[in-house]
Amino acid sequence: MNTHLLEPGFLETHNLREKDRLPGNFSDWMGFNAEISPDDDIFRFFANHPTSVNPVRDYLSDGWRTMMELQEILDLHALSVQRCGSFLEFACGHGRFTRHLARILKNGELTVSDVVPGSVDFLKDALGVKGFYSDTDPEKMVLADKYRVIFVLSLFSHLPSSAWNGWFKLLQGALQANGVLIFSTHGEKCARLAGVDWGEQAYKFFPSSESTALDGQTYGCAYASADFVKNKIVEALGPNVKIQVIPNHFWGNQDAIVVSA
Question: CA 253 to CA 88: how far, in whole Å?
Answer without folding.
Answer: 23
